[in-house]
Amino acid sequence: MSRTFISTLKTLWDFLNTPIPFTTTEARQTATEVPTLEATPIVEPIVPPVVPMSNALESIPEVQPMNASERDLRLEIINTLLTTPHRQLETVAETHKLMRDVDPIFYGHLAVWYNQNGDVRDHKEVFIAHLLASQLVEHRNAGYTMLQALPPYQVARVVDFMKQKLGKVPRSTRTAVQQYLRQREANPVQFDRATLRARKAMKHLYASLHIKPNARANAILFADQPPEDSLAFVLKRLAKADSPLDQAQIIVAHKLPYTTAIGAIKQLTPTVLVALIDAMSPQEIINNLKSLKARGAMDNPDVKALIDRKLDAAVSNDRVAAMKATSAINPADFDADTVARLEAVSNEQIKRRGRITRSTGLLVDKSGSMTQAIEVGKRLAAMISGISEADLYVYAFDTLPYEIKADGPELSDWEKAFRNITANNATSIGAPVAAMEKRSQIVDQFIIVTDEGDNTNPYFLEAYLSYCKTHKVKPDVLIIRVGSYCTLVEDALKAQKVTVDTLVFSGDYYSLPNLIPILARPSRLELLMEILDVALPQRAA
Length: 541
Description:
Blueprint: H1 3-16, H2 25-31, H3 54-57, H4 73-80, H5 90-102, H6 104-117, H7 121-132, H8 137-147, H9 152-166, H10 171-185, H11 188-208, H12 215-221, H13 231-240, H14 244-254, H15 258-261, H16 270-278, H17 282-287, H18 289-294, H19 301-314, H20 324-327, H21 336-351, E1 360-365, H22 371-387, E2 392-397, E3 401-404, H23 411-417, H24 430-438, E4 445-450, H25 460-471, E5 476-481, H26 488-495, E6 500-504, H27 516-519, H28 524-533
Parallel strand pairs: 1-2, 1-4, 4-5, 5-6
Antiparallel strand pairs: 2-3
Helix pairs in contact: 4-5, 5-6, 5-7, 6-7, 7-8, 7-9, 8-10, 9-11, 10-11, 13-14, 14-16, 16-19, 19-21, 22-23, 24-25
């Protein structure tokens, strides 16, 4: 490594670690006059090249590291709710812990609000775990109460998360789990259903927390000698049944769940399939659609008709996840009729999440490398158009604006409308705003799907200010960041005291319905006030 390079690094290190007191405007200006560092050629290939720092150093006062009290943790935690961790809970755990410690009042209300309104199970588990591990009695009581309503596999996940990521399971949490298990032991029907669907999780809770099961629970879970009145015994009868008719009768009589019963069945016939599907909930049908198709359920007209009726029932079912109907399957694997039913389920479930009463301009970046923005844009257009009670204007843009109009509100309609939109050219986020100003398309909010790489005139800020002046309005701005984003547009807007919110899209379309509570409120403040109005549950005496 050359001496010149080492000297350059030392100079940079000394500069970055020198306190810069900003007491006056003159002092700030003087501090930002930093000499440009010249990059030195690197001979050794294992050493990364030096990146020119002059541009970045010019804004040193604005990019100083912030401590927890200076960060907008509320914004950060709401951003995390737009992701789906897929069991990688450590990716959101740090933000949860910071929010709980810095603003415990808001965190407690947010946890309860999300438990009532959110879709992503991972987030619900992390919320409850942090409440249970909190120093506040109110948090622990709320976590205790919320834990009682979880299915066993989620209770086991909460306990494991606390052990592995938080490093502790307080005595109060063990008490909460013990109460959870005792309540189910006292109700044999509830206990049998729990062990039938989550036998491994139930055993794990008893064993990992050293909770002694009662005699019946021990016989079912650990001794493998279930009493004759238990569903575990019924499952053994199902495995021994020889005829499809006997199997079907057992499944129907005891409503055995598909995922459990399928492993005990020797031969899957249409008769048995009908019995299994009849016992399934609409959400279970959606979750297991691939498995049902692989077992020939979609090829039998009678069985297919029963599946269709279950999918139709999912439209109005409160326990169906909004996006799971379409995100969990590949449309190419199913016939058009089934795909249409699944889309109808998603559309109707999304409508139940809220209505958008504000006119909206959706601006979708189609400049180079913005393929993901186009995909997010078309899905947002379908979602918003289906629940909007006001005008919606959709534009794709590079250096020119392209107004997009669909023949209907369905995702398939927007797929067709976007079919010729491809990612290329430079970026002018102000171009669609200028077009809307000229066409007198007045909106209450702009939603921009972009990486904020606004590099061509008209720039968004100038176009936005002109739009506001012409139409005497001041729309709010929500930036949905995709790809390797910067903060160029956000910084420019904040400098002009324009209301701007930012959300980061991490690539999971299942999370998009979580945007609805934000879009359905006139402002982020109203959403935050709604969250604070949610009461924390009280632990029964």
